[in-house]
UniProtKB/TrEMBL annotation, chain A:
The gene is AP3D1. It is a peripheral membrane protein. It comes from Catagonus wagneri (Chacoan peccary). Residues 777-794 have a biased composition (Acidic residues). Its main location: cytoplasm. Part of the AP-3 complex, an adaptor-related complex which is not clathrin-associated. The complex is associated with the Golgi region as well as more peripheral structures. It facilitates the budding of vesicles from the Golgi membrane and may be directly involved in trafficking to lysosomes. Involved in process of CD8+ T-cell and NK cell degranulation. In concert with the BLOC-1 complex, AP-3 is required to target cargos into vesicles assembled at cell bodies for delivery into neurites and nerve terminals. Keywords: Acetylation, Coiled coil, Cytoplasm, Golgi apparatus, Membrane, Phosphoprotein, Protein transport, Repeat, Transport. This is AP-3 complex subunit delta-1. Residues 660-807 form the AP-3 complex subunit delta domain. One of its GO terms (biological process) is synaptic vesicle budding from endosome.
From TrEMBL, chain B:
The keyword Protein transport applies. Keywords: Coated pit, Cytoplasmic vesicle, Golgi apparatus, Membrane, Protein transport, Transport. Its main location: membrane. GO terms for molecular function: clathrin adaptor activity. This is AP complex subunit sigma. It is a peripheral membrane protein.
């Protein structure tokens, strides 16, 4: 041993330590990867050594490599080894490595449970601390469940160092194992008033985090926190508490009112910027939650805005940034207070820090009004021109569009101006947001009817200069606007001044270089234009011109037919055929314009984006159900692929709709209109604005006329949006004058009246009448649309599970799982059984990794097997005899069998013959009617009780009923009978047995002394009923309580075991059995199974085993195997019990 | 609170990283790479905060080292800066005017200090004195053992 140590330390001298590794890596800058792979090889060698110091050093190096990005997951098991080192130096490194590289997918993590538990209860606070720290990084749901109780206990540790760590880690435990929240919460709450400020602050931290996610459950803590807030001077704690209040106030406005004062005091007094910032944020949150417009709160808002202004004006970029950020929160509810600082915000747009500029942009969004929109956008447009980076420019672009389009174009008074802004934006090179501009163009043109004429003129100009837009060779996003332009010109072609010119522009060869989807739109809209032109020419009886247009199409369309894009090709060839047909008809002088236009008759209405979603699913309609059962795989294989050539039938189906005759359609339309009229949920589009003009009386009509005069519609060049700004100013001035005139008149009229008009000229938003009487067409909603706009919560939110009512009293079932010994409640909770299994594993970390992996696999299998019985356990044993015996091995009473079978695998003897199936049930009695087998189980919770499970099997063809079991009680053992019955009464069996059926009944016995085996005589009486009649029968039996039946399989760690043996309180006894041929492996399994022991440690052919009686006697065994013989040395706190047990064991062994 | 991590790097090299949310190595690497790029691309006069995915990144540069924290939307940026600063102070006190090499060669110590200061992403000890005391005592526990072995 000593030699080994020396050898180990000599080895170590030659090993690289961390410093060497780091130095080495720095010296091998050229071939770092090679050097590191060499190091990893060395580390692998080091990990194979027994010396823990060498291993720890290796793991430490690995941790460094992990940081550099190398995978070290293969060493997870070695890390656990180092974690379980007894020396703090190594343990610390082990836990560090684990916290750096373990995650939920690390499979060996479950092996750490027991080690961590041990460290948590270590007498050294630093062991505990290091375990807690590590655990906080890699806690999994399993670990959380198994260790929750241990950590909860640590929350009341004597040392504040441990308490505060335990409190903090509880948050992680709650997240992983939400069931622990309720049982642990009372103690957590206690910690809010812990004498140690560190612990207190930890508790505040945890509760604040919890409350932020689910505030409503923590409202009851508000008074306590209020007290803390007014008393605490620790800024860290204050920030947390204030944040917590920010989360609580939306739920309880009264709290908000109470908070305003202390918060404003803090804002006035504190010098810590972080606290000031937090206070301002919370005041904002409070004010948002309070009903706005309360006069006494405008002061607080004013205060906040003032303070924020100071932040923004600060030279520190960080404060500037945060000031703007907070300002944007105020903006949402109190835009007026922020708008006063527009100058400051606009100033920030010029800041050199891009993130500050972006924040300022956010603010602008909320600051615009009808009055200043044009001005602000003008400013932004100059920034667009100046902006150097494309990202910032793109950001500006989207902001401009956002600002203008917000709340349904609320602030736009002049849409012509907006369209020209959009057109100007198309000149941006290399922007990604062409589609955004396009979407805006389409939206405005569709929804603002009055603007269509103007929009069309602009778009046709754009199409005309398409070569400018799409000039750059790289496909930039801006050509998307051509999509919109083409569509608008086509759809609203009636507004086109020079349709012919636009048509030609759209048919230029250059167009074929555009992306496919744009070409497709071009092709489609060419026909719309064509239809319009045709109509125009025919009305003018200009036959030749009409034919020329047709000829143009026939000439130019083939370039699209050749397109590589399927959509373009298909549309183009259809249309080419159509046009050729028209050409033929034209040659015969047949008027065609009507029919061609009919293709595009009717107007498209905008549909709300969520329209489809809002249609409720009609009752009784299951969208997931198959309409036709899907064809089986074999069938579909036989069939030819349908996708390409659709069969006749389908084509017919497609043609059907047009067949419905006109009358029918008209009738249906009428019916639908009727229905819509009666349906209150149907949102009708407002009447056409053009009609309104005609109906509208005098004054309203005037602006339209003005605009028509002032806008240079017929000038084909691009308009400058700036012109509009000027125009708009003039227009507004005009308006004001008019209004003033009217006011004057009115004033004259009410000269003597009490009302006094302020002579100051304040122009509020509402005063500005929009230039166009534009009606924004409401988007169409489907019938039956649901009015609500509910946004689904994210079901994957990890914090949702913590939405738990904490004020309800704790139920018994909610107790945290305490580490229990295995037989206690095993049948009820299969998950808990995992705990002892894990303990076993972690005890033997010395095993080679390979073996370990095998074990892992085995374990998984076992787990699966374990799950089954839990499902089956409620099923009665209504199976035939054979099945029953098999079934028994799995069924609920078989915790020991599992242990028994599991043991050999654990010891790595997988190649050996498996043991024959074992059953702990032995025969009690049997006759021609019935067969009884039984098993006795004790529980550590009840030191004088055992449960006898009796399986009754009906072997006859009679129906067995009124079964009753009775025993002659002895002084030591008594059958527990129902209350009120005498000692001579039997206990009824709670079921009847039809022929061939078996079932299990349980009887409880109270036992005084367990050191001796004993037998009880008893009788089972029952009525057997068959065709001939019923007879009263009985069956006598002797119930044998062996000493083994008082034992409970209990795992034991080797160190605890050693301590137990050293304590010297145990008496000793031994036996030897010869002539044993069974392998040691199976032998141990047999002992484990039949005598309810567990293996503590096994070395070669020697094993130590442990068990415990229901009355708490420890029984330790040392089992040694010689040639064909086995000797068992036992130690036990009761000599009689021991000798009896050994006798029983001798019997078992003799059978081997 | 610091839902994610603190890390340090210089010229794109990681010197320290700590994650308070368990992620797979692959994800960690991806995030790190992305962040290193973003943060190093920032100009010196820019503010210390940036929005990244649904998190906020708070970073601060000390000499050639960037210290970087990811926090959640509602967290306080200024207090996070304070945390970074305090950690640097702790390193400074422990190593005695810390330099990058100290952190490289004693990276485990740097971690131990961090672990005493933050736990699970939350500040566990606001007193510098207490943190250093805990570290020193733990070191004391370690040293006799080291001599022994």
């Amino acid at each position: 041993m000593a030699l080994k140590m020396v050898k180990g330390s000599i080895d170590r001298m030659f090993d690289k330590n961390l410093q060497d590794l780091v130095r080495g890596i720095r010296n091998h800058k050229e071939d770092e990867a090679k050097y590191i792979s060499q190091c990893i090889d060395e580390i692998k060698q080091e990990l194979k050594q027994d010396n823990i110091a060498v291993k720890a050093n290796a793991v430490c190096k690995l941790t460094y490599l992990q940081m550099l990005g190398y995978d070290i997951s293969w060493a997870a098991f070695n890390i656990i080894e180092v974690m379980s080192a007894s020396k703090f130096t190594f343990k610390r490194i082990g836990y560090l490595a684990a916290s750096q590289c373990f995650h939920e997918g690390t499979d060996v993590i479950m092996l750490t449970t027991n080690q961590i538990r041990k460290d948590l209860s270590s007498p050294s606070q630093y062991d505990t601390g290091v375990a807690l720290t590590g655990l906080s990084c890699f806690v999994t749901p399993d670990l959380a469940r198994d260790l929750a109780n241990d950590i909860m206990t640590l929350m009341s540790h004597t040392k504040p160092y441990i308490r505060k760590k335990a409190v903090l880690i509880m948050y992680k435990v709650f997240l992983k194992y939400p069931e622990s929240l309720r049982p642990a919460f009372p103690r957590l709450k206690e910690k809010l008033e812990d004498p140690d400020p560190g612990v207190q602050s930890a508790a505040v931290n945890v509760i604040c985090e919890l409350a932020r996610r689910n505030p409503k459950n923590y409202l009851s803590l508000a008074p306590l926190f209020f007290k803390l807030m007014t008393s605490s001077t620790n800024n860290w704690v204050l920030i947390k508490i204030i944040k917590l209040f920010g989360a609580l106030t939306p739920l309880e406005p009264r709290l908000g009112k109470k908070l305003i004062e202390p918060l404003t005091n803090l804002i006035h007094s504190t010098s810590a910027m972080s606290l000031l910032y937090e206070c301002v944020n919370t005041v904002i949150a409070v004010l948002i939650s309070l009903s706005s417009g309360m006069p006494n709160h405008s002061a607080s808002i004013q205060l906040c805005v003032q303070k924020l202004r100071i932040l923004i004006e600060d030279s520190d970029q960080n404060l500037k940034y945060l000031g703007l950020l907070a300002m944007s929160k105020i903006l949402r509810t109190h835009p007026k207070s922020v708008q006063a600082h527009k100058d400051l915000v606009l100033q920030c747009l010029d800041d050199k820090d891009e993130s500050i500029r972006l924040r300022a942009l956010d603010l602008l969004y909320g600051m615009v009004s009808k009055k200043n929109l044009m001005e602000i956008v003008k400013k932004l447009m100059t920034h667009v021109d100046k902006a150097e980076g494309t990202t910032y420019r793109d950001e500006l672009l989207t902001k401009i569009i956002d600002i203008c389009s917000q709340s349904n174009y609320q602030h736009i008074t002049n849409f012509e101006w907006y369209i020209s802004i959009l057109v100007e934006l198309t000149r941006l090179e290399g922007t990604r947001h062409g589609h955004l501009i396009a979407a805006q163009m389409l939206d405005v043109a569709i929804r603002v009817k009055a603007i269509r004429r103007f929009a069309v003129s602009q778009m046709s100009a754009l199409l005309d200069s398409a070569h400018l837009v799409a000039s750059s060779t790289q496909r930039n996003g801006i050509c998307e606007v051509l999509y919109a332009a083409a569509w608008i010109c086509g759809e609203f072609s009636e507004h086109l001044q020079e349709p012919q010119q636009t048509l030609e522009a759209m048919l230029r060869p250059k167009v074929t270089t555009l992306p496919g989807h744009i070409q497709a739109v071009y092709v489609q809209n060419v026909v719309k234009l064509y239809a319009a032109i045709l109509q125009q020419k025919e009305q003018a009886a200009d036959v030749q011109a009409a034919q020329e247009v047709t000829q143009l199409l026939v000439e130019r369309l083939p370039q699209f037919v050749q397109s590589a894009d399927l959509e373009v090709q298909e549309r183009a060839s259809c249309i080419l055929q159509l046009v050729k047909h028209v050409q033929k008809l034209q040659a015969k002088d047949v008027p065609v314009a009507e029919e061609v236009s009919a293709l595009f008759a009717g107007e498209l209405n905008p549909v709300a984006p969520k329209a489809q979603k809002k249609v409720p699913v009609p009752e009784g309609l299951d969208l997931d159900a198959w309409i036709n059962e899907p064809l089986s795989d074999s069938e579909s294989e036989d069939e030819k692929p349908k996708a390409i050539f659709q069969d006749e039938e389908q084509r017919h189906a497609k043609q059907r709709p047009p067949e419905a005759d006109e009358q029918e359609l008209a009738r249906r339309r009428e019916a639908r209109k009727q229905e819509q009229a009666n349906n209150p949920f149907y949102i009708k589009s407002s009447p056409s604005p053009q009609k309104r003009y005609q109906d509208a009386p005098g004054v309203d009509h005037i602006p339209v006329v003005q605009i028509d005069l002032s806008v240079p519609l017929k000038v084909p060049g691009m308009p400058m949006s700036d012109q509009y700004v000027k125009l708009e100013e003039e227009r507004r001035h005009q308006q004001r004058l008019e209004k003033d005139k009217r006011k004057k008149k009115r004033r004259e009229r009410e000269r003597r009246g009490t009302r006094r008009h302020s002579s100051l000229h304040t122009e509020s938003d509402e005063d500005i009448a929009p230039a166009q009487r534009v009606d924004i067409v409401t988007e169409e909603m489907p019938e039956n649309a649901l009015p609500s706009d509910e946004d689904d919560k994210d079901p994957n939110d990890p914090y949702r599970a913590l939405d738990i009512d904490l004020d309800k009293p704790l139920a018994d079932s909610e107790k945290l799982p305490v580490q229990k010994h295995r037989n206690t409640e095993t049948p009820k909770s299969p998950e808990k059984e995992d705990i002892p299994v894990m303990e076993k594993k972690s005890k033997k970390p010395k095993k080679k990794e390979k073996k370990h992996k095998e074990k892992e696999r085995e374990k998984k299998k076992r787990k699966e097997a374990e799950k089954k019985p839990s499902k089956e356990k409620k099923k009665k044993h209504k199976k035939d005899k054979e099945e029953r015996t098999k079934d028994k091995k799995k069924s609920k009473k078989k915790t020991p069998p599992r242990e028994g079978v599991a043991e050999p695998m654990e010891n790595g003897a997988l190649d050996e013959d498996p043991l024959p199936p074992m059953s702990s049930y032995c025969l009690l009695a049997e006759n021609s009617y019935i067969k009884m087998t039984y098993d006795v189980q004790g529980s550590l919770q009840k030191d004088s009780q055992v449960t006898v499970s009796v399986v009754l099997e009906n072997q006859s063809s009679s129906f067995l009923k009124s079964m009753e079991l009775n025993v002659l009680d002895s002084l030591n053992a008594r059958l527990a009978r129902p209350e009120g019955s005498s000692v001579h009464d039997g206990v009824p069996v709670p079921f009847q047995l039809p022929p061939g059926i078996s079932n299990e009944a349980q009887f409880v016995f109270t036992i005084q002394s367990i050191v001796m085996a004993q037998k009880l005589k008893g009788t089972l009486s029952f009525i057997a009923k068959n065709d001939e009649g019923s007879t009263h029968e009985k069956l006598d039996f002797k119930l044998h309580f062996t000493c083994t039946s008082y034992l409970v399989t209990t795992p034991c760690y080797s160190d605890a075991f050693a301590k137990l043996l050293e304590s010297g309180d145990l008496s000793m006894s031994s036996i030897k059995v010869d002539g044993i041929s069974m392998s040691f492996q199976n032998l141990l399994a047999k002992i484990c199974f039949h005598h309810r022991f567990s293996v503590v440690e096994r070395v070669d052919s020697c094993a130590s085993m442990y068990s415990r009686s229901i009355q708490g006697h420890h029984i330790c065994l040392l089992v040694k195997k010689g040639e064909k013989s086995v000797s068992v040395d036992g130690k036990c706190s009761d000599p009689t019990l021991l000798s009896n047990l050994l006798e029983e064991m001798k019997e078992t062994l003799a059978k081997c | 609170m610091n839902s994610s991590f603190t890390e340090i790097y210089r010229q794109g090299k990681l010197r320290l990283q700590k994650w308070y949310v368990p992620l797979s190595d692959k994800e960690k690497k991806k995030i790190t790479r992305e962040l290193v790029q973003t943060v190093l691309a920032r100009k010196p006069k820019m503010c210390s905060f940036l929005e990244w995915r649904d998190l906020k990144i708070v970073y601060k540069r000390y000499a050639s080292l960037y210290f970087c924290c990811a926090i959640e939307d509602q967290d306080n940026e200024l207090i996070t800066l304070e945390i970074i600063h305090r950690y640097v102070e702790l390193l400074d006190k422990y190593f005695g005017s810390v330099c990058e090499l100290d952190i490289i060669f004693n990276f485990e110590k740097a971690y131990f200090i961090l672990d005493e200061f933050l736990l699970g992403g939350e500040v566990q000890e606001t007193s510098k004195k207490n943190v250093l005391k805990a570290i020193e005592q733990a070191d004391l526990l370690q040293e006799p053992q080291e001599i022994e072995s």
